[in-house]
UniProtKB/TrEMBL annotation:
Pfam families tied to this protein: AAA_21 (PF13304)
Chain ranges of the ATPase AAA-type core domain: 60-290
TM annotation in the entry: none
Name of the protein: AAA domain
Protein species of origin: Corynebacterium singulare
């Protein structure tokens, strides 16, 4: 499993959240909520923290401040860092504390609503780069397989309005496939996806990705259905070892552009990845995917549900309430999920 899974997140006045205090499972974490409840904002916070720690080694607090501020700006793309604080009258200060299991010191930082690009780090987890082998991977709602290596050059050389998660994930997608004894292990994990892709595998040639299918040959990624390109991304990341036995997967709405059969495969794959050692964080508001995740649940497994919902207070002081529980039914009612269930009941009685 991930050597240092994220165990707890505490935050105040960050984004739409007045207060966050959530404990996570070292295996599967499912984040649910209505539109505009801050699900992607929440997910990107965890990714930014893990990625900055992963890429930093033996840095002073001053150097880490610079690296963290740069990553926050690159992932969220605000005009100024202070824009990431909660909107209030007067000045505000965002505080974030993240605890990694097995590490004595927390990652703790804060910044002001007046900050341009400055972060103040209070404490750093004492983890060397050699020990921190867990790779954080962020999969956005949009597939990335149709983007060639030229996108990376474009990203590095020009000011573009794409957040850094795209660049980070593309770099991992371009890693070569595994060789040696780990190939059999990867093949077993990737098998359910390959079946959905007609036993296809993902290959790279001159910076472009292709879906290689028996009896058909290579099909350029842009010619593959978008839902299948999302599945193919996962195939590639497992085949090259980025998602094998460890690390963190942050997946924003995996159900987007996938039919129910593919969503069912995604649910089982997320369980398989978590069981194999990856700490998984998935954001969804699909009742179908949630049901599949629940039905595929092994009660012996450690699953955590996180619910985000906006309160019904005055719009000028509205906030997102964050809850967590070991069972989905233990969370307060979420309107978007209720609406889909209510529609299903109306359809059955129609």
């Amino acid at each position: 499993m991930a050597r240092y899974p994220i165990r707890r997140l505490e935050a105040q006045s960050f984004g739409p959240f007045r207060e966050i205090d959530v404990e996570f499972s070292p295996k599967l974490n499912i984040v649910v909520g209505d539109n505009s409840s801050g699900k992607s904002f929440f997910l990107k916070l965890l990714y930014t923290a893990a990625k900055t720690v992963k890429d930093s080694d033996n840095l002073t607090k001053k150097e880490f401040n610079s690296a963290l501020a740069s990553k926050l700006m690159g992932v969220y793309r605000p005009d100024a860092l202070g824009r990431l604080t909660r909107r209030t009258k007067g000045a505000a200060r965002a505080n974030v504390d993240i605890t990694f299991a097995g590490v004595k010191q927390r990652l703790s930082w804060n910044f002001s609503s007046r900050s341009k690009s400055e972060v103040s780090t209070e404490s750093l987890p004492q983890i060397s780069k050699e020990d921190f082998e867990d790779e954080p991977i962020y999969l956005p709602t949009h597939e990335l397989l149709s983007l060639s290596a030229s996108f990376l050059s474009f990203f590095e050389n020009y000011e573009v309005d794409f957040d850094e998660t795209w660049r980070d994930t593309l770099l991992l997608l371009h890693q070569p496939a595994l060789r040696g004894p780990r190939v059999a292990e990867a093949s077993k994990l990737v098998s359910p996806f390959s079946k959905l892709l007609s036993d296809g595998s993902v290959v790279e040639n001159n910076g472009r990705f292709y879906l290689k299918q028996p009896g058909i040959g290579n099909l350029e990624a842009p010619l593959v259905a978008e839902g299948h390109r999302k599945l193919a991304m996962l195939v590639r990341l497992i085949a090259n070892g980025a998602l094998l036995n460890s690390g963190y997967l942050f997946w924003d709405e995996p159900e987007a552009n996938l039919n129910p059969a593919s969503q069912k495969a995604i649910a089982h794959a997320l369980r398989a990845l978590a069981a194999a050692g990856t700490q998984v964080f998935v954001v969804t508001h699909s009742v179908f995917l949630l049901r599949e995740l629940q039905m595929s649940e092994n009660k012996a497994e450690d699953t955590r549900y996180v619910g985000l919902s906006r309160d019904s207070g005055d719009a000028s002081d509205a906030e997102v309430v964050v809850q967590s529980a070991p069972e989905l039914d233990d969370l307060d009612v979420i309107a978007a999920l209720d609406a889909e269930v209510e529609q299903a009941e109306r359809y059955l009685s129609w």
